[in-house]
Amino acid sequence: MIQFNNVSKRYPGGLDALKNVSFELAPAEMAFLTGHSGAGKSTLLKLITLIERPTRGQAIVNNQNLSRVTRRRIPYFRRDIGIVFQDYKLLHDRTAYDNVALPLVVAGVRDKDIGRRVRAALDKVGLLKKERAYPIMLSGGEQQRVGIARAVVNKPPILLADEPTGNLDQALSDEIMDLFHDFNQVGVTVLIATHDHRQVQRLGKHVLELKHGEMINDGSPRSIS
Amino acid sequence: MISYLLRHLQVFFYTLGQLARAPIASLMTIAVIAITLALPTGLYLLIENVQRMSTALDGGAKISLFLKADIDDTAAAQLSKRIRQALEVATVEYISPKQALAEFKRLSGFGETLDTLTHNPLPPVLIVQPSATLDTPQKLDDLVKRLRTNVEVDLAQLDLQWVKRLHGLLQIARRGVWLLSVSLALAVVLIIGNTIRLAVLSRREEIEVIKLVGGTNAFIRRPFLYTGLLQGAAGALAAWALVSLCLSLLAGPIGAVADLYASNFRAEGLGSYGIAILVGVGAVLGWLGSRIAVGRHLGSLEPR
Fold first, then answer.
1. What's the CATH number of domain A1-80+157-225, 3.40.50.2000, 3.40.50.2300, 2.30.38.10, 3.40.50.300?
2. Which of B9, B213, B298 is the mutation pick for testing A, counting most A CBs within 10 A?
3. Considering only CA atoms, which of B81, B58, B285 is closest in space to residue B186?
4. How does pLDDT run across A185-216, given as a tens digit for each residue?
């Protein structure tokens, strides 16, 4: 589902964020992307979502060679990837409902379908009763669940998360990670960047470890340093 | 197709709602645009009205054909008939030397003195009233030239010098208004461009999120384009209201002056056609300013 072949990313100024990174995620696989700050986790996620382009190498996501996705096609490409952020990136002047509805609105889904699908997504993350609440009225964990509902509302085959539990305590982190696990159980390919080793060990999934831009581990949780 | 239109309609009303939610800011922008557009509109109306007034005066212009002294009444009548048939004239009036002398006696007060003349020194005259279709000095001039070619005519006179000068001045003024309009149109584009630029920057987070969830540039642009369009159109309407207000304030004095000249001239406003054009121009300028501003800033607002 996600395949990198010798991908490198050098930023202007000479910083090598990724060096010859190769890995593969099968459809419906769940994996953790770990490593210290500055190891290249965020860069890797940005390459998958085409926020950045690789300097060298080949990346294939959802059966599309990323170098062939033109600027004009990027929005349509992104509609097949749900993204969850550490800082949630919710729109504060809109209700939870409207935040979750956003991906459907931009994709031009009809109004009556939007209502049904938004409520299904909010129900899945347990926030159906808070659909009229503004983000400011929600706790951190609830805001992140709204973010997750937004990421999955148009049923993307791929779900990415960048430090989704970075701002949350342990109990809330467990809840959020279990949600990702649930989505993986129904066939979504999930890739989570995190340095929360507890979660990595707890769920025991495929682990990709980056260090100074290089992939130093690609395997089971026990192999990480 | 219908759902496409429906989406546009949604964005349209959403934008209206946004403008209504920030009434002071919207009204300020609209007021600036109104003043900017009112200036050329007002000048245009001024020129149109002066033009109309001078055309009315052109219509009053008569051409005097002084015929050669040896032309008798029958020859003059024939000429007048020929002119009436061949040329664009409304009426041709014949004044025989006798009538002319009688009139001169009556009006000049030299009655007794003139009786001492041994012969009548006045020539026969044809007074030609050009038809209303000859509405420019050029056309009138052509008519005079053609009248002059008749052998019976000694002298053809049309006092239009001042009308010509007025027309010349109006041409200059009209061109000046055009130049002014172009530069003020540019000003409207810049005003709206700047407003939209600020709006785009203040919503950069929202734009980044929309891009991340797969919103196209067209989708992001749409509400801004409608904002520009609506502000431009509203500014144009306000400009029209402003000009109408000025006109109604001037109507009294203008009427008074016109009455002194025994004219029923009244200053005219834009008319529905003119209003439609003004609002259309405002909307297009607003759209254009917004399009330029959004286009410039959208590229730099990629998610990070």
1. 3.40.50.300
2. B213
3. B285
4. 999 999 999 988 888 999 888 999 999 999 98
